[in-house]
Amino acid sequence: MAWGRNESTVIDTAKIDKTLNQTITDQVITTAIWENQVYDSNNLVDIATNNERITIRRAGFYLIMLQTRRLPTISIATDIRDYIILDGLSVLNRFSSSKLSIDNVLHHIQSFAYHNFVVGQFVTHQTYHNRGGNWDLG
Fold first, then answer.
1. How far apart (Å, rounded) are the C-alpha atoms in residues 71 and 44?
2. Can you spell out the DSSP letters for 22-51?
3. 135-137 and 22-24 as β-strands: parallel, antiparallel, unpaired?
4. Residue-level pLDDT, tens digit, the chain, 138 residues
5. Most exposed residue of 9, 13, 101, 133, measured as fewest CB within 10 angstroms of its CB?
6. CA nearest neighbour of 33 among 21, 15, 42, 43
7. Distance set, CA 5 to CA 20, 83, 100 (Å)
8. Closest CA to 66 of 21, 17, 99
9. Is the pTM of this model over 0.90?
10. What pairing do the DSSP bridges indicate for beta strands 80-86 and 2-7?
């Protein structure tokens, strides 16, 4: 997940990613856990304490980009969803596909949201699928 905010010459940015696969249980909405902080310009990320979120430190408009990767599978999912969630409650963006999977292919999904945040709000990523068994988010 990556974030950015521009106020004149001030830009807050952060990028977090996964270093381990996370098992997403069939037909269960799951919050993604991030293990790696690539960069962070304003203490937006605290991997040790809240490794599922990015917290806003300066009010304003942010562009949120989410890119997920699902590992190859031999089962086809007919319902795949990625959500960008505000404060654990509100959906800022939802990506949904009725049939994304092709046997043994790595799947990438991108989703974007643009929002006017206040200080202290946070964003998480949730995901869902119905492929009939667990699926790894990598």
1. 28
2. EEE-TT--EE----EEEEESSS--BTTTBT
3. antiparallel
4. 555 555 555 688 899 888 888 888 888 999 999 999 999 999 999 999 999 999 999 999 999 988 777 665 656 666 778 889 999 999 998 877 655 555 555 566 778 889 999 999 999 999 888 877 777 777
5. 9
6. 21
7. 28, 20, 31
8. 17
9. no
10. unpaired
